[in-house]
Write a structure and sequence with these properties.
Blueprint: H1 2-28, H2 39-50, E1 58-63, E2 66-67, E3 71-76, E4 79-83, H3 85-97, E5 100-105, H4 111-116, E6 122-123, H5 131-136, E7 137-139, E8 150-154, E9 171-175, H6 179-185, E10 200-204, H7 207-215, E11 221-224, H8 226-235, E12 239-241, E13 256-258, H9 266-279, H10 281-292
Parallel strand pairs: 1-5, 1-6, 9-10, 9-11
Antiparallel strand pairs: 2-3, 3-4, 6-13, 7-13, 8-11, 8-12
Helix pairs in contact: 3-9, 3-10
């Protein structure tokens, strides 16, 4: 009797366990399962964060350091150093972003191309906005209003030049890739409606080389941005600016970033420009650069 009773109890226990197992397999235990996370919702914050570029820790600034007072080389305690108005603007931009600044000296006409290739993060080189440049890169708000283009000649020959027509048949220099080159060549009348018809263009990548061409009588004149022409005339007694010749509008130089601003730099750059202009810092940078321009050496 004892054995039969135990068998009956064991049988009832197994039957109950089997019933519970069947209920669980039919979904009876679903309320205890953890629901699968919604992956689309979980991914949304990560995607949103990825859309915003991280704040840079280092900025590479591209320029063409042959253009006092904007960017030029000097020797300071025996060390070659790049200084100028544009360099001061670049330093302010990097400081406001909390980033280290590295300066890379390049040929002017390659600056935007090299930036597009990732060789630098932004460009400042007294570079005004033109349709071609706007098609290749993005510009900041203007940070400085330059003097209109001027013609630099040997002081001994100054009296020969009273009008733009006096440069017909003369060898006139300008930096490649600039509006000043278009003034000399007349190749783009929309950008440079006033130009030197009949001049023989001497186009070089480096402004220092152009000045040497002028000093050593390899060319008769050089067309430069006004502030640059004035600065060379002030620092070299052999040179003079031709007065009374109108060569076009005043350029408004900008800071340039790669097309589409992939690193998200323009908003911060424009904030810095606005702050500098409001504080009068651009004028201070210009004065500081002017005071160093007579120390400019070849880049």
């Amino acid at each position: 009797m004892k054995n039969d009773t135990m068998k009956k109890i064991l049988g009832l226990t197994l039957s109950a366990a089997l019933s519970l197992s069947l209920l669980a397999s039919c979904g009876g235990g679903a309320s205890t399962q953890t629901p699968a996370p919604d992956e689309s919702k979980a991914a949304e914050p990560a995607q949103s964060q990825a859309a915003e570029p991280a704040a840079p820790t280092k900025l590479v600034f591209g320029t063409s350091a042959d253009y006092p007072p904007f960017e030029f080389h000097i020797l300071e305690d025996g060390e070659d150093k790049i200084v100028g108005l544009d360099v001061s603007v670049a330093k302010a931009i990097a400081e406001d972003m909390g980033a280290e600044l590295e300066i890379v000296d390049m040929n002017f006409d390659n600056l935007l191309t090299l930036m597009a290739q990732g060789k630098c993060d932004f460009v400042i080189a007294d570079m005004e906005s033109t349709p071609d440049r706007e098609a290749a890169a993005d510009a900041s708000d203007p940070y400085y209003e330059d003097l209109a283009p001027m013609v630099l000649v040997k002081k001994a020959n100054l009296e020969q030049y009273k009008s733009i027509e006096d440069f017909t048949g003369k060898n006139v220099g300008a930096q490649t890739g600039t509006n000043k080159a278009l003034i000399v060549t007349g190749e783009d009348e929309e950008t440079a409606p006033i130009h030197m018809t009949g001049a023989n263009a001497v186009l070089l990548t480096n402004v220092g080389d152009l000045i040497n061409q002028l000093v050593y009588d390899k060319c008769d004149a050089v067309v430069l941005d006004g502030a640059v022409a004035v600065k060379y005339a002030q620092t070299n007694d052999e040179l003079a600016v031709v007065e009374g010749i109108e060569l076009g509008h005043v350029g408004l130089p900008c800071v340039w970033v790669a097309e589409g601003d992939p690193n998200g730099l323009l908003p911060a750059i424009n904030e810095t420009i606005a702050k500098l202009k409001a504080a009068g810092s651009i004028d201070t940078f210009k004065e500081e650069a002017d005071s160093l321009s007579d120390q400019a050496i070849g880049g």
